[in-house]
Amino acid sequence: MSRDDRRNHKGRQRNRGGQRQFSRSAPSQRSRRADPARLVAFRVLRAVALDDAYANLVLPAEIRRAKLDKRDAAFATELTYGALRAQGTYDTILGQNVDRKLTELDPPVLNALRLGAHQLLQMRVDTHAAVNETVGLVRDQIGTGPSGLVNAVLRKVGEKSYQQWVDELTADLGEVEALALRHAHPTWVVRALRQALKAQGRGEELAELLAADNAAPEVHLVGLPGELEPTGYEVLTSAVEAGAQLSEYLEGAAVFRGGDIGRLPGVAEGVLRVQDIGSQWIAQALTSPTVGPGERWLDLCAGPGGKAALLAALAAEYEVHLQANEPTPHRAELVQKALSPVPQQAWSLRTGDGRTIGELDTDFDRIIVDAPCTGLGALRRRPESRWRRTPSDLAELTVLQAELIDAAAGVLAPDGLLAYVTCSPHMAETLVQVEDALSRHADLELLDAHEFMAEVALPSGAELVQPQQNPTGEVAAKTVQLWPHIHGTDAMFFALLRKAPV
């Protein structure tokens, strides 16, 4: 048949025969509505970008709002955390495929591209589905205009695997820069973690730590001790029946790997709580030496209340009193709620700046300063923090940490114990901070925190917190640095100081 034979009487070309096939990428065939699970992830990324929200707080509410079933909720969770966690690496890859600077893109479009990149490169999502559904999300939530750009960019991204992109982009980089891109951490954070590991004699474990930071964290549970209703023993037993496993390191703790925490007995009452085992461990270590009658304890930075609740429950058992302090009113409300399961006579709450704690005109026998910090030890749980924090944050935070230590030292009773804690391994917030505190306060003595951690641990836990053989200096030798890749906890730092007796 000649070319002219396929034209009708008006000169228009006729169909060549057979069933007509439409391109999958044709606009008329593309999804124009957002898939509910992907829409949840998009909304969380928007809240993180626009409101400085934390994904772990926003995501559960968005999942409930969308009424996602268990499968879609798991998909939305993986997509949200994955896109946030690897944001810097995805932005580098996207930058190779966009004809302008990423900063020139509207933030919602960039968020959609990150979600699409994660589906293409790190999830078991068909390439067509990843592109098509992301384009549908853009058309539904942003508009038709940017959908063509998103479609074109994601098709280019999908031409290579994640490994191929990383290998190509790290080919000419130095070791730290390559590790930063490969493991999706800012370069300055990688340098800080390397320095902290070296101080603890673990310099060769950097890649292992970075990989652990990117693993989905387990949920740690604590059953509050004491005569509560229900009891901590009862709620932990119920949690085990629901699939949790008792911790191998610490009594009263459990690990939960799946399911809805809110449905476990004791959660509604506040007796069963989500709390990192490292945090539980440190709180128990502070109370491990013999508790005397009438002791007064202080949690100087109590919000949002996890450690305060555990300390208050222990205080009730020992028939002593915990003073909780929190400067921010809305966080003080969270502390109040966390403390509510514990008998009121065991605790009290002050809303005020911790640096003014001396206004109470009271000395305390045990004080914990869980100081505000960069949070670099909890990057598994708050993946957006790695891209939100900057080195400039350290200047303000380290000044505040020093002032809180000084305030605590000022109200520490003779022979009293002061625990300095951060959820960051950055040396400026840990070893340097303790060294400076010792130089300012000649009446403070640094104790070996490993001994107190081991005292409250189960046998396997006691073995895990033995001092390193080659730390750099006395402070590193006597303080405990927990690590995700070793202890399965957040990277918490713990120093224990004692004030000289009169």
UniProtKB/TrEMBL annotation:
One GO term of the biological process aspect: RNA methylation
Print the keywords alphabetically.
Methyltransferase, RNA-binding, S-adenosyl-L-methionine, Transferase
* Sequence positions that bind S-adenosyl-L-methionine: C301, A302, G303, P304, G305, G306, K307, E326, D353, D370
Biased region (Basic residues) positions are 8-17
Specify the domain of life of the species encoding this protein: Bacteria
Q: Does the keyword Transferase apply?
A: yes
Q: Which GO terms describe its molecular function?
A: RNA binding; RNA methyltransferase activity
* Residues annotated as catalytic: C423
The residues covered by the SAM-dependent MTase RsmB/NOP-type domain are: 198-500
Q: Which family does it belong to?
A: Belongs to the class I-like SAM-binding methyltransferase superfamily. RsmB/NOP family.
- Recorded protein name is rRNA small subunit methyltransferase B
The species this protein belongs to is: Nesterenkonia sedimenti
